[in-house]
Records
---
Amino acid sequence: MLTKRIVPCLDIKNGRTVKGVNFVNLRDAGDPVVLAKKYADVGADELVLLDISATQEERDTIYDLVKRVGEQVDIPFTVGGGIASVDKVAHILRNGADKVSVNSAVVYKPELALEISKEFGSQCLVVAIDARQVDGHWLVHTHGGSKPTELDLFDWAEQMQEMGAGEILFTSMDHDGTKTGFACEALAEMSERLSIPIIASGGAGTKDHFVDVFTKGKADAGLAASVFHFDEIPVPELKSYLLSQNIEIRI
């Protein structure tokens, strides 16, 4: 059995790590390079860096920051935000990232997923999906969650798997920052329909929420931000607890 992964997420805006609730009301959480090194040192399995305003501001992601993080950490890290071409993916990987996360760009150009996976391998491609429930249906949103689409979450995840995604990073906008638990029912359904790993994001507030996301939600990785940034749940403490609950985890 593959071990479950603990993945701190650094949302980057204006060169700083920020965190909000339901994608709004952002507050400063520190220097992303310092935080990245801390997480690598204390046993995080991977990191995700998301330039959360790159797409809305129609600019490139933060290449210099990617390079500085790459010089400080020895664990895999994924970079997302404003990535809309194979050339940008190449630039990010050259600067030290192990994977890229694409979201809005593949909604508007689905074949981009195929292009990236063919050029660099599916192991490099994480397709991020931001979704919330609208009239009982999970609908995909783009541009940092600000623009709704008509795409069904589960159908879209399946399509991206078919087009070469190596992983799906699913963020429940309804749960984001609320600390009330992950969207385990949706995650379990997604797990039944996909054969690639699923990273769960949105709602982590307690150590038991991680137990739930790995058992009830059947996720392969649990991603969180504020509970790690503000030392509410130290990564080593979380890993020890998960082991005590018979969750296969790296130590």
---
Amino acid sequence: MKYKMNVTLSNGEVVKVGVEKPELVYGATALIVEDPIDGYAINPITNEKLEVIVQEGEETRFFIPAHIEEDYIYAKENHLPIKQVVAPYFYGKGEETPRGDKETKRRYSVVGIIKHHQEDQYLCEDAKGRNCKSFVMGGIEENETPEDACIREVYEETGYQDVEIDFVSNFIAVNHFYAGYKGVNRYAYLNFVYGHLISDKHENITEEENAKHIVKWISKDDLKDFINIDLNKMALNILFYGEHAYTEDGMMITTDENNEKTSEEVRRNIIQKFDL
């Protein structure tokens, strides 16, 4: 079902634009039209200016590259901005189920997918004392970029020093879980950072890190069998199949009252607010 939203153009004209998931309009970066229009459009939810893109044979619609695959491809080819507003949401299970009696702390973190400098192998960790097999993961500290955090975490947790970053995914995920080792719930925004070693240069890790995990190099063919953390499987999908628009439901990333609400809830809120 398509809902019709009123969109105001800079010349004062109002056009109706169809959209299947109204909450995705948060991520619109342009308005696609068939015939040229002078000026710009105004996002009906965020009030941001939207560029007008003319595409012959296209109905008037929102351009949402983070969440519509054809728009994502066009944006990548033309170096246009990609604005993610719905994130995959991972909720802790078993001992990691968020606890109502514990404080929730928000954190920005990285998952580092680091390739060996010679072999088709990837740097992984096998946790001691718990069933957690993953890529290198850790928090982003104050004033760090995801790239900086990845390089630091790789060094601290594995000892490898010669890391070069290839790219950071356009998409982040949300991991909501109880961190028993910290005694708090975590609401973590995860950045996926891809890179490779330039050399084998490394140092021994600390006794504290050594007590937490075993550092392992896993061949690319064996990664799917080794990795057992759901949020790492998203990183695997990008590694194996490339990056694509995120088209599923999830958790909203906005700067207003709809932040950290489910996309389904926000969809209902917008339908009611705009009487769609």
